[in-house]
Design goal:
The chain is an alpha/beta fold. The protein is 28% helix and 15% strand.
């Protein structure tokens, strides 16, 4: 996204009262009048007071009773209430966390994008007494965020350089990344787009003209068959705004399917209402990539949210970032992927943490990721093994990495090592895989997924 788009004061964001969607050039979606007149700000209050009955775990119930004693269960289950009552200040965190000196100093030092933001629901999962708690480390700032190491960058993946119009990244031949919002209900401290999300200026970067230009570009480029909605978080948008975007994309003939990248089902499962699911199922084929990190996130609330999405025919995949002190062990990762399969989410990607500015305290050696894949492959079902990838700095795209299972050659036999470390032979006459000159053939190859 270009820098100028963050200061377009004359433009109105797509959720503002004055925003009226323009039909995209290929006869795009025309929303009903009720949609146009109900478009509101980023956190709209629903016109109907109905709040669905949702599962509430014992842990969340105890948290609500202690810190929101006057809040009825009806409000706790309202995703708008969760958004309005996010913890966004030092004083707010001190209500329920015993902050370390480092956390407190980082909160006082922080300025600009990637602010503090934690939903009450997700706050209920944090250990109030342990700064090293895995989930707490991912959402509470520490001083390491302000230490920039060699090789780190504000835009390490070169997204801005592959952005033909504001809010759209076109890196791969047949698909685009559409950044539809710069707002997240909960901010991850290792976010790849920490340069833009969350600040007042960044939130206004997603304007009416951004959406229109992106839709124009997609409609004009017939090679684009796949659109990934991301941000920020697309599911932070209102139902009306989502309906407009999905309808507009669905009416472009060459767009074959749409994906949504989101962490909302994990940090705000109350957002996955029957009304939202009913809306989403109108736009198949629709896929969803959900950002999971740790088995502690697989709660009864999250299981119910994923069940609703899966029952609506939406294929669910997980995208997990490998983080030091959070999920960097075979045991933790195995518990996570097993838990995901039980709630009908297929482990898809395990990402090496991107070298964003101030991320060194999160990044592991690449050997750790290979160790985890080696500890999963063969030791559990193949459906539970994600693709371990590095998103190449500078815009090279995703590159998958695998442990060395090719041990070499002996004549016409390819020598292979299985998950137990045992050597096996496979007849492969006339090939060169396994020879020193072809070592790269058994290693990383370019990945074709956004």
């Amino acid at each position: 996204m270009k820098e100028h788009s963050q200061i377009e004061e004359a433009e109105e964001p797509p959720g503002s009262p004055s925003f009226v969607p323009r039909m995209p050039p290929q006869g795009g979606f025309s929303p009903p009048a009720s949609v146009l007149h109900r478009a509101r700000n980023l956190h709209p209050v629903p016109s109907a007071p109905h709040i669905p009955r949702l599962t509430v775990s014992e842990r969340a119930h105890a948290f609500r009773k202690r810190y929101f004693a006057e809040t009825p269960l009806r409000d706790w289950n309202d995703w708008h209430w969760q958004n309005r009552n996010r913890f966004t200040t030092l004083a707010g965190l001190e209500r329920f966390l015993h902050l370390s000196d480092d956390e407190r100093a980082a909160l006082r030092q922080h300025r600009g994008s990637l602010p503090l933001g934690i939903t009450p629901y997700y706050a209920s999962l944090l250990n109030p007494d342990d700064p090293a708690d895995p989930l707490r480390r991912t959402v509470v700032p520490v001083s390491g965020e302000f230490v920039r190491m060699p090789g780190e960058a504000d835009d390490p993946l070169g997204e801005d350089g592959h952005s033909p119009v504001p809010g759209l990244v076109h890196r791969y031949p047949d698909r685009v990344l559409f950044l539809v919002s710069n707002f997240c209900t909960t901010y991850c401290r290792y976010c790849t787009r920490s340069r833009m999300v969350g600040s007042k200026e960044a939130e206004r970067a997603v304007t009416r003209s951004n959406w229109e230009q992106a839709l124009d570009y997609i409609a004009a480029h017939t090679e684009v068959r796949d659109v990934l909605l991301s941000g920020g978080d697309p599911l932070s948008l209102s139902d009306e705004r989502l309906a407009y975007l999905l309808g507009a994309l669905r009416r472009i003939p060459h767009v074959e399917f749409v994906r949504i990248g989101t962490k909302v089902p994990v940090v705000l499962p109350q957002r996955i209402t029957p009304a939202l699911v009913k809306l989403l199922r109108q736009f198949h084929p629709l896929w969803m990539s959900i950002h999971f990190l740790h088995p502690d996130e697989v709660t009864p609330e999250v299981a119910e949210a994923c069940e609703r999405l899966a029952d609506a025919g939406i294929p669910l995949g997980s995208q997990t970032v490998l983080l030091k002190g959070v999920n960097d062990s075979v045991e933790v990762m195995k518990r996570l992927v097993h838990g995901l399969l039980k709630i009908r989410v297929r482990p898809y990607y395990l990402y090496q943490c991107d070298p964003i500015s101030g991320s060194s305290h999160f990044r592991t050696p690449v050997s750790k990721g290979l160790e985890i894949i080696r500890g999963l492959r063969g030791h559990t079902t193949g459906y539970a093994v994600p693709h371990y990838v590095i998103d190449a700095p500078g815009g090279g795209g995703k590159i998958p990495l695998l442990p060395e299972y090719v041990a070499g050659r002996d004549g016409d036999d390819l020598l292979l090592v299985n998950y137990e470390g045992r050597m096996y032979r496979y007849p492969d006459p006339g090939d060169t895989v396994g020879l020193p000159s072809s070592a790269d053939k058994g290693r990383a190859v370019p990945c074709t997924s956004v």
